[in-house]
């Protein structure tokens, strides 16, 4: 399984597979990790990659004590469908 990279300089989680890049763009301000936009190329669709990107954001929030702010419609929907994934993390809906 391809590893997700947290590119902190460009504020995005990236996953490269089969010559395509999926990303979750975010912004950190203080103790808030705002999820802005998830983009998964059609060639990578149906593999659960979008959810893996959101999970990477949750892992970072858990590790760094950040509050998740899901502005991205995909991330918001994914979090609503998988509330257990955010156990121990504050979410500012």
The separation of the N and C termini measures 31 Å
What about the largest sheet? 5 strands, mixed
Order of helices and strands: EEEEHEH
- The DSSP helix count reads 2
Can you give a write-up of this model?
- The chain has 93 residues and is α+β, with helices and mostly antiparallel strands.
- The protein has helices at 49-64, 73-81, and strands at residues 5-7, 12-17, 20-29, 32-39, 67-70.
- It has a five-stranded mixed β-sheet.
Keywords:
single chain; 93 residues; alpha+beta; 5-stranded mixed beta sheet
Q: Secondary structure elements and their pairing?
A:
Blueprint lengths: L4 E3 L4 E6 L2 E10 L2 E8 L9 H16 L2 E4 L2 H9 L12
Précis, in short:
By secondary structure, this protein is an alpha+beta fold.
């Amino acid at each position: 399984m391809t590893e997700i990279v947290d590119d902190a300089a460009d504020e995005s989680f990236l996953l490269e597979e089969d010559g395509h890049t999926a990303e979750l763009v975010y912004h950190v301000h203080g103790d808030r990790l705002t999820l802005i936009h998830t983009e998964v190329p059609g060639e990578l669709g149906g593999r659960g990659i979008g959810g893996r990107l959101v999970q990477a954001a949750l892992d970072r929030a858990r590790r760094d004590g950040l509050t998740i702010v899901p502005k991205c419609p995909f991330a918001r929907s994914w979090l609503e469908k998988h509330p257990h994934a955010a156990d121990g993390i504050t979410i500012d809906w």
